[in-house]
């Protein structure tokens, strides 16, 4: 590789030049120090083409540092003056703060009053709702009691059972377990037209359905209700009379007759609806004897 060298005469003449004859370098720009990734080593490496001695560079950097210190001091003094003036500007602010505090306390008391009023209204509404529910339950119970009373009265009329008289009393007028005056005129007409051998399965079915309806209402209300407790004797007499009628009808059925076989099954179904299957078995056993 070829290299370029100065001759000796040139070197001698160059060394003899006065450094004062060199051009004066420009001041270091402030922007060079503002980079977030500023590095002194990197900054100095960029000054290799700068015609300036190291002492002059140090003097310039020291002057730049003193200049920045003066600017920082001026900035602090300016802000300190504003900070000191802030105290005088805030004089009399305590009264305003007190006014705000009093206003906030007033709003708080108002909110607490509204909360208490809402709580009272809520308790009142809950009480009214509870009262309405209680009245609704009592209405349903009252309607159920009317259904029970009406059903028992209708059954007593159909079966010829009188209040205050036992089920066994007055049964001497019955023939084969049936009461002669146990039904209305319409029932009697239907019995005359549809029964054979004195048996009316339709009348028995209506009576049993009415009795089962009354029992379901009693179970829904509760048998321990005072009114229902007083009706236990009436229910017992009606039950016994129905069982007598069903037993008499079952005894009169001719199991050889195909028509009576169907009626027998219907009567056994009525026993089942009443929950008296054991009574039906007893009647059938008596027939076999």
Structural write-up:
- The chain is mostly helical and 289 residues long.
- It is built from 10 helices and no strands.
- α6 (201-221) runs antiparallel to α8 (232-252), α6 runs parallel beside α9 and α8 packs antiparallel against α9 (258-274).
- The radius of gyration is 59 Å and the shape is elongated.
- Mean pLDDT is 76; it is low at 1-17 and 165-198.
In short:
With 289 residues, this protein is an all-alpha fold. Helix content is 70%, strand content 0%. It starts with 7 loop residues before the first helix and ends with a helix.
Annotation, overall tally of beta strands: 0
Fraction of residues in helix = over 70%
Morphology: elongated
**Describe the biggest sheet?**
none
Q: Report, as a whole number of angstroms, the end-to-end distance.
A: 147 Å
- Note the total helix count: 10
- List segments where confidence is low: pLDDT < 50 over at least 5 consecutive residues: 1-17, 165-198
Radius of gyration, in angstroms, nearest whole number: 59 Å
* Structural class assignment: mainly alpha
Mean pLDDT: 76
In N-to-C order, the SSE pattern is: HHHHHHHHHH
- What share of residues are in beta strands? under 5%
Q: What's the arrangement of secondary structure elements?
A:
Elements: H1 8-15, H2 40-45, H3 54-89, H4 93-159, H5 185-194, H6 201-221, H7 226-230, H8 232-252, H9 258-274, H10 277-288
Helix pairs in contact: 4-6, 4-8, 6-8, 6-9, 8-9, 8-10
């Amino acid at each position: 590789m070829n290299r370029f060298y100065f001759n000796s005469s040139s070197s001698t003449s160059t060394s003899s030049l006065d450094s004062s004859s060199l051009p004066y370098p420009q001041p270091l720009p402030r922007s060079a120090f503002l980079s977030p990734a500023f590095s002194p080593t990197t900054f100095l490496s960029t000054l290799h083409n700068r015609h300036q001695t190291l002492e002059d560079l140090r003097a310039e950097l020291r002057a730049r540092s003193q200049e920045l210190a003066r600017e920082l001091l001026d900035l602090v003094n300016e802000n300190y003056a504003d900070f000191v003036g802030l105290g005088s500007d805030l004089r009399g602010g305590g009264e305003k703060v007190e006014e705000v505090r009093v206003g906030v306390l007033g709003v708080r008391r108002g909110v607490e009053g509204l909360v208490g009023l809402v709580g009272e209204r809520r308790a009142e509404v809950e009480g009214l709702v509870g009262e309405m529910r209680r009245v609704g339950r009592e209405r349903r119970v009252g309607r159920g009691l009317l259904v029970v009373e009406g059903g028992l009265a209708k059954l007593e009329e159909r079966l010829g059972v009188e209040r205050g008289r036992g089920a066994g009393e007055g049964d001497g007028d019955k023939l084969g377990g049936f009461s002669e005056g146990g039904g209305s005129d319409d029932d009697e007409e239907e019995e005359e037209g549809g029964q054979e051998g004195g048996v009316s399965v339709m009348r028995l079915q209506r009576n049993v359905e009415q009795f089962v309806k009354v029992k379901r209402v009693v179970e829904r209300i509760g048998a321990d209700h005072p009114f229902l407790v007083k009706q236990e004797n009436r229910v017992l007499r009606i039950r016994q009379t129905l069982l007598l009628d069903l037993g008499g009808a079952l005894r009169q059925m001719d199991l050889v007759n195909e028509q009576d076989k169907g009626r027998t099954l219907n009567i056994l179904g009525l026993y089942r609806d009443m929950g008296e299957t054991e009574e039906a078995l007893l009647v059938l056993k008596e027939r076999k004897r």
